[in-house]
Amino acid sequence: MTPVLIQTLRTYATRYETPAFLKDDPSQFMHQVSGDSNRETTAFVASCLSYGSRKQFLPKMQSIIDAADGDVFHWIREGEYRNMFKENDKNSFYRLYNYHTMAVFFEAVQEILQKRGSLKDFIWAMKSRQAIDVLEELSAYFYSHGLTGIVPRPRTSCCKRPCMLLRWMVRCDSPVDLGLWSDIVDRASLFIPLDTHVAQSAVRLGLLDHARSSWHTVEILTKKMREVFPDDPSRGDFALYGFDIDQ
Q1: What is the pLDDT of residues 95-124, one digit of tens each?
Q2: DSSP conformation letters of the chain
């Protein structure tokens, strides 16, 4: 990678990693609430709903925060989600997620919060500081509860939403990312949250030779970002987002 390209990417990252980034991004929700356990729980739910059209999923997430009166952690832990999501309700909530699916999902999250105390304690119990292990085990937990798409697996998909969640939770000293798990997951091990726009930006910059969404592509692009941000590769997400906006 040329010095000019490295500097270009660093400039874009600095320009776009600002509070203004939150306005139309699902990361906004974890900044709406208070308390570390509540923030990380809100962030996790937001990451799971963040696919498709932002105009559709942002209001859905807001409806959950409103139903929880701003305390998603308590709302799930105490089972209050059952007032909104019932297991026998097969009506659609958002795209592939019906109310039954959401009820099962919240039941699985409730189990974590009641048995471990918080999502951070659940992650800490994994005893690995590497992002790939956290992604694998987090996905495996929800697969074991019959939920096969809400928390996708790495290596079999680009795993964009869980990678985004780890960026939010691990990166610190950021106006966007919270860094609540910065002491239990190694920031240098994070991956780029890959979507179509990020992949297309990477192709235009010559970082990728195709825009296919796959885990192999995530690995290639993350390796490239380590040349630019050696101990913080997922910061490249801001750089590639900024490049896409400016085109």
Answers
A1: 989 999 999 999 999 999 999 999 999 999
A2: --HHHHHHHHHHHHHHSSGGGGTTSGGGGGGTS-SHHHHHHHHHHHHHH--S-HHHHHHHHHHHHHHTTT-HHHHHHTTGGGGT--TT--SEEETTEEHHHHHHHHHHHHHHHHHHSSHHHHHHTT----HHHHHHHHHHHHHHTT--SSSPPBTTB--HHHHHHHHHHH--S-SS---TTTTTS-GGG------HHHHHHHHHTTS-S----SHHHHHHHHHHHHHHSTT-GGGHHHHHHHHHHH-
